[in-house]
Structures are given as structure tokens and as C-alpha cells.
Design goal:
The complex is a heterodimer of chains A (about 325) and B (about 290). With about 325 residues, chain A is mainly alpha-helical. Chain A has one domain: ABC transporter involved in vitamin B12 uptake, BtuC (Orthogonal Bundle), CATH 1.10.3470. Chain A is about 75% helix and about 0% strand. Chain A is built from 13 helices and no strands. In chain A, helix 2 packs antiparallel against helix 10 and helix 3 runs parallel beside helix 5. By secondary structure, chain B is α/β, with parallel strands linked by helices. Helices cover about 40% and strands about 15% of the residues of chain B. In chain B, the strands form 4 sheets. A 4-stranded parallel β-sheet of chain B has the order 4-3-7-8, sandwiched between helices. In chain B, helix 5 runs antiparallel to helix 6, helix 6 packs parallel to helix 11 and helix 7 packs across helix 11. In chain B, about 45% of the residues are buried. Classes of the chains: A mainly alpha (about 325), B alpha/beta (about 290).
């Protein structure tokens, strides 16, 4: 399947399939929750109709949209960093981008900053850690770019320590809200910003899909691009940092989506960025939406943090996928 | 007549706060014995500091953990760290003859180390509002301030009984108590705030959940349709904690404008001011009832 060349029919067919999956999950997410209200009650003439309306339209719908958008952002950010580094291990969590955003958000929270300040500060943190990682490892021309990845891992450890430090000095009253950022959670998440960002990112990157294909085949191949390589690399830096920052401010630190989704899609769909980019945007959203659905219904009305669910369910599936691929070879 | 007088004098001599040994059982069932009433006490939780001040032992405290901010004099006490991580070296250096500890909040490993150092520890672990007067009385024995402690304890018991009497037989009010905003957290039936609710005929809508401080979702709150939503705090940032519910004007609590910000710390500390917290909560419940 992965060997098949990318035709227009295949592209549209596969994306339509993913879109159907996303819509199916969205429907499920609107129908299920900790209470027994269902969307079709909206049109019934019962006293419960108004309550069902609040539950479905004001609570489940915004949260589901936020899950779709944040998952998509994380997967696209992971894909962008993997293309940039041509290294399968790259993703915002591993490279310190999420960590930087988290330190930014925690600092703003510690200073009792409002939502806008928290977002801004998280964005700055993501950008700074990205610049730091790529700045330090700029001259690494080795084919595996091991130095870049190691720098990322070092920066991740550093931001992790900074986050722990901020938590340690935080007063009791702020602590719970801060720990929330470390676990990842979609309750009360805003969907406007992440969804808008995801669409913007997809529109921004899509025209470069062909060139990104060249870039992902190695710097030699990328020389064919001439002076555009630099520009493309910067585009990828910024878009992955911005996507991560928006994802982290919306839902806290959610790991593994950026690693697992692009990989799984590569194993299933092949290497072509023209397909991978929109597929990652949809696939990441599907995975996070499904994880959130499980997290909020499994022991309802009690809630599980979505970051815990993605890691617990996502990692075994990913390991299985890797095994399958090994066997086929 | 004379023998009676001798007896009375003898009894008075024995009761004098001389070098008499004192002994009580703590909440872990251990017997805490001091050769003489405690003179240098360290408190390992803000509510324990409040307990000591309530029985008139405030001047005997030589060290307290952070956030010991009530009464105002408590702010001037030397700090020995926070309740969940304290400075053992400094505690030892302050030469306490009694440490009052809170096993539900203090780390067990550090408490074990304090026990090893040979300093007498009193473990305070009240589960219900009704347990607090008893704690005051036992601390009073250890500090040799029995009479003051007994009257403080009696005062708390009477106020709790008054609340229960005033609200007995009245219509139950469904209450959602919001512990935290994001993630949205509440309390279950084992928690002491639910105990305070029972005093005035309020019912915690999430009493039956298994976790003590469960994270829940908004639709569960909507479905429970509480008649009163309460949280506690004083910062203006927390106002959004309550205003978020105004999006749902059909919820009983919102329709009748029964959203209350209760004074901070009262309901979250297992000390004497818990009764103040219960009174504030019950006043809100009474308004929601009408």
C-alpha cells in the first residue's frame, strides 16, 4: 500500500476517508459524555431539550473542535520537524518546543497573568527553545543530524527542570492550575484559535509540499532548490513553533501525538508530503478527539487527563505498527 | 470540715501547672506523653497553628510552616518550610518539646525522621467537623491549658449545634462546591465540606463519587442542576470561576442567582475556623432555600 504512487485519485480518496473518520468521531463525541443527553433531543419538545442543547452545543461541540484542532496542530508540527531534521525522532515534545512553551505558560501563570499573557508567553517560550536548539546545532551537516536531536533532548531536560522549579516555588493556591499544564487537558479549551491556526498552517505549507518532499530526501536533494532551502527551513521552524505554542496554550502538554501520528501515517500512506500534510492535520485531530472521548467517558463523571490517555493508548498501537513494518520487510 | 479543706488544697496543689506529666492519645492512636506541659511547640500545618492560637498557646509556638497566616500574629512566627516539605535541620535547631503534625498532608518520610530524632509528635488527623473540638481539648492537655481549650472546644460545639438546630427539618438544597476551575474539581461525600453542608441541610450533588477531590466535566454539573454553586477565594481572578456558569441561565443556581464566593481558607483548613466556614456556607444555603 505504501509503495503505491500518489495519484490525484488516491490523494482525494485517502483524505476523504480520513475526513469521514473525523466526522464519525465528531458525531460520537457529540453523542457521548458523562450524561445521557443526545443531539437528537435538541429537536424534541421536552423540558430536557434546552438542557441537551447546552450540553451538546455549548460543551461537547467546542471541546470536540478544540481536540480536533490541537491534535492536528501537534501532528503537523511533528511532521514539519521531522522533515526539517530528516529524523524520525523529531517532534515538539522531544525537541524541547513543548517544554519551552510550557515554561512560558507556567511563568505567566506564576505571575498571575491572564489568558492572553499566558498564550503570548507560551509562544515566546516555544520560539526561544526552537531558536536555541536550531541555533546551537546549526552547523551540523551530518546525515543523521544527531547533534541537533541531542541538543533538543538536552533543551527538553532543561525546560523540564525549569518547569519543576516553577512548580516548586509556586504558592499552594496556583499549584493545581499549573500542574494542569503538565498533564494536558481539554476541559474548557477554546477552539477558535487552534482551529484558525491549523487552517492557516495548512494553507501556508501546502504550496510548498513538493519542495518539502525534496527537503525530506536530504540536503543533497534539497540543493536542487537553491536559495529557497533556507527560506523553507525558516518556514518550518516558525510554523512548528507557532503550532506547538497554540496547542500548549489551549490544552497543556500533550505528548506523543506529534511523534506517533506522522509515523503511523508514513507507515500506512508512504512518504509523500502532499498527502502526509493534510493527513497529519486530520489524523492528529482524530487521535486526540478519540483519546478525549475515552478520557471523559471511561469513569464518568470523573475525568482523566487526555495526555494520559494518548500516551497509554497511543504508544502500544505505535509499537505494534513498528513491529508490523519490521515483519513485512 | 478541716479534712475537706485539706483535700481541696491538695487537689489544688496537684492541678497547679507544676512539673506534672501530661498524656493524651493522638489521632493515630499513639499515646503522647510529655514530662511537663509543652513550652516550645512547632506546628506543621496552617490549621494546626490556628488550633494552638485558639487555645491560647500561640505564644508557645517557636516555628510554623508557611501560610500560617491566621491570626495576624502567626505571620511573625519563624518559618520551617511548607507543610509538604519542611526543614528538619531548622526544626531540630529550634529545640521543640512538641511537634504537632498533620499526617494527611505532611510527608510520611519526614515525619518518620522527626520521630527518630526523639521529639514528641502529636498527629492530628480530623475527618469531620465534629472531630475538631476534641483536637483542641487534647492540645490543651499537652500545653497545660486545659480550661481555655475546653471553653474554646465548647464554643465550637455550641455553634455547630446551633447551625444544626436552625436548619433541622428544612428543605434540602442541592449544592455544587467548586474546588478548582481548570481542571474543574469538586469534593465527594467523605470530604469535610460535605460534612459542613449536612449541618444545614445542604446536599452535595457529587457526594457519591469515589475520589475525594474528583475532576468532573461541566455537563455533569448541568445534569445535576444544583440550586447553589459555591467556591471560596478572594482574588478577583477567581470571579470568572463563577461567571462561567452564567452561560447556562437555565441551571437553577444561575436562574436564581445563587452563586457564592465564600471567604478564603475557612472551608479548606481543618481548624477552628471551619465552623466560621460552615456558618458562611449555611447562610448561603438559607438564601438559596428562599
Amino acid at each position: 500500500m505504501s509503495a503505491a504512487p500518489l495519484t490525484r485519485t488516491r490523494l482525494i480518496g485517502l483524505l476523504a476517508l480520513l475526513l469521514v473518520l473525523a466526522l464519525a468521531l465528531l458525531t460520537a463525541s457529540l453523542c457521548l459524555g458523562s450524561t445521557a443527553y443526545r443531539p437528537w433531543q435538541l429537536w424534541q419538545n421536552t423540558p430536557d431539550a434546552l438542557l441537551a442543547r447546552d450540553v451538546v452545543l455549548q460543551l461537547r461541540l467546542p471541546r470536540s473542535l478544540a481536540a480536533l484542532a490541537v491534535g492536528g496542530l501537534l501532528a503537523v508540527a511533528g511532521l514539519a520537524q521531522q522533515i526539517l531534521l530528516r529524523n524520525p525522532l523529531a517532534e515538539p515534545y522531544v525537541l524541547g518546543t513543548s517544554g519551552g512553551a510550557s515554561v512560558g505558560a507556567l511563568t505567566a501563570l506564576l505571575l498571575s497573568g491572564g489568558t492572553a499573557l499566558v498564550s503570548l508567553s507560551a509562544g515566546l517560550g516555544a520560539l526561544l527553545s526552537t531558536l536555541l536548539v536550531f541555533g546551537l546545532a546549526r552547523h551540523d551537516h551530518s546525515s543523521q543530524q544527531a547533534r541537533l536531536l541531542l541538543t533538543g533532548i538536552a533543551v527538553t531536560s532543561f525546560t523540564g527542570a525549569l518547569s519543576s522549579l516553577l512548580l516548586a516555588i509556586a504558592p499552594e493556591g496556583l499549584l493545581r492550575g499549573m500542574v494542569f499544564w503538565m498533564l494536558g487537558d481539554l476541559s474548557g479549551a477554546d477552539w477558535h484559535l487552534p482551529l484558525f491556526s491549523l487552517v492557516l498552517l495548512a494553507v501556508l505549507l501546502w504550496p510548498f509540499a513538493r519542495e518539502l518532499n525534496l527537503l525530506s530526501h536530504g540536503q543533497q536533494a534539497a540543493h536542487a532548490l537553491g536559495g529557497r532551502t533556507r527560506l523553507l527551513q525558516w518556514l518550518l521552524y516558525f510554523s512548528s513553533a507557532a503550532a506547538t505554542a497554540v496547542a500548549v496554550t489551549t490544552a497543556g502538554m500533550i505528548g506523543f501525538i506529534g511523534l506517533i501520528v506522522p509515523h503511523a501515517l508514513r507507515l500506512l500512506l508512504g512518504q509523500d508530503v502532499r498527502l502526509l500534510l493534510p493527513a497529519a492535520a486530520l489524523g492528529g485531530g482524530c487521535l486526540l478527539l478519540a483519546a478525549d472521548l475515552v478520557g471523559r467517558t471511561l469513569i464518568a463523571p470523573q475525568q482523566l487527563p487526555v495526555g494520559v490517555v494518548t500516551a497509554l493508548a497511543g504508544v502500544p498501537v505505535f509499537l505494534w505498527l513498528l513491529q508490523q513494518r519490521g515483519v513485512r520487510r | 470540715m478541716v479534712s475537706r479543706l485539706v483535700c481541696a488544697l491538695l487537689a489544688a496543689a496537684l492541678m497547679a501547672p507544676a512539673m506534672a506529666a501530661v498524656s493524651v492519645k493522638d489521632d493515630k492512636g499513639r499515646t503522647v506523653t510529655l514530662a511537663q506541659p509543652a513550652q516550645r511547640i512547632i506546628s506543621l500545618a496552617p490549621h494546626l497553628t490556628e488550633n494552638l492560637f485558639a487555645i491560647g498557646a500561640g505564644s508557645r509556638i517557636v516555628g510554623a510552616t508557611s501560610f500560617s497566616d491566621y491570626p495576624a500574629e502567626a505571620r511573625r512566627l519563624p518559618q520551617v518550610g511548607s507543610y509538604n516539605s519542611f526543614d528538619l535541620e531548622q526544626i531540630r535547631a529550634l529545640k521543640p518539646d512538641l511537634i504537632v503534625a498533620w499526617p494527611s498532608g505532611n510527608p510520611a518520610r519526614q515525619l518518620a525522621q522527626l520521630e527518630k530524632l526523639g521529639i514528641p509528635l502529636f498527629y492530628d488527623d480530623p475527618q469531620r467537623l465534629a472531630d475538631i473540638p476534641g483536637v483542641l481539648e487534647r492540645l490543651g492537655v499537652l500545653a497545660g491549658l486545659d480550661a481555655q481549650a475546653r471553653s474554646a472546644a465548647q464554643g465550637l460545639r455550641e455553634r455547630a449545634a446551633t447551625l444544626a438546630r436552625q436548619h433541622a427539618g428544612k428543605k434540602p438544597v442541592r449544592v455544587f462546591y467548586q474546588v478548582w476551575d481548570r481542571p474543574l474539581m469538586t469534593i465527594n461525600g467523605e470530604q469535610v465540606i460535605t460534612d459542613a453542608m449536612r449541618l444545614c441541610g445542604a446536599v452535595n450533588v457529587f457526594a457519591s463519587l469515589p475520589a475525594r477531590a474528583p475532576t468532573i466535566d461541566e455537563e455533569a454539573v448541568l445534569a445535576a442542576n444544583p440550586e447553589l454553586i459555591a467556591t471560596s477565594g478572594d482574588s478577583t481572578a477567581k470571579n470568572s470561576w463563577l461567571t462561567r456558569w452564567e452561560r447556562f441561565p437555565r441551571m437553577a443556581a444561575v436562574a436564581n442567582k445563587q452563586l457564592y464566593m465564600l471567604p478564603p481558607d475557612l472551608l479548606s483548613r481543618m481548624g477552628p475556623r471551619l465552623v466560621d466556614g460552615a456558618e458562611a456556607l449555611c447562610a448561603a444555603v438559607e438564601k438559596a432555600r428562599q
